[in-house]
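Run log // design_07
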């Protein structure tokens, strides 16, 4: 059985976020302590990828570099990430 182990993102609740504001959507990782922070996905359900860009100006989530989980490498998480999007334009 093949599967992907994933760490989910959550949408940021900050204002000025999304298509209406003409800004990239903002996402962040939930705490690794939360029950739904991780999950499994069937590889056949993966349609495409997304480019996630750290919001460098906002800084790292853990200034001391000490995370809660080595396998997830949460010690290097950023506070906020931007989700880059691509608009499909069919040739006509």
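design_07 sequence
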């Amino acid at each position: 059985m093949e599967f992907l182990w994933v760490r989910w993102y959550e949408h940021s609740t900050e204002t000025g976020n999304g298509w209406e504001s003409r800004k990239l959507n903002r996402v962040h990782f939930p705490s690794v302590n939360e029950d739904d922070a991780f999950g499994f996905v069937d590889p056949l359900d993966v349609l495409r990828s997304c480019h996630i860009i750290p919001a460098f100006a906002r800084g790292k989530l853990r200034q001391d570099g000490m995370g809660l989980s080595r396998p997830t490498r949460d010690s290097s998480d950023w506070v906020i990430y931007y989700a880059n999007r691509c608009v499909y334009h069919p040739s006509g």
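The chain has a mean pLDDT of 78.
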